[in-house]
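Can anyone check this?
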Amino acid sequence: MLTGHVQGILFRYYTEMRAEELGLGGTVRNLRDGGVHIVCEGDEERIKELIEWCERGPERAIVKSVDVTWKEYTGEFRYFRVLY
């Protein structure tokens, strides 16, 4: 989960673009508390690249924290998409 100024600045859109560039599957969605929740799976090194990108975010983002939980690969996601 990401916290900070991460909603209303196209964070989900840019996350989807970056994840697709990295070949990751998963989802990104806004949370009611103002945070953003990302679930992704794929190559571990590419996931780490996405995490590093999330720590900065797109222009105008002010990311305060990125909490990461690692889980077993399930193969659930073929594509990356934004949830509304």
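Reply from J.R.: I decoded it. The helical segments are 11-22, 44-56.
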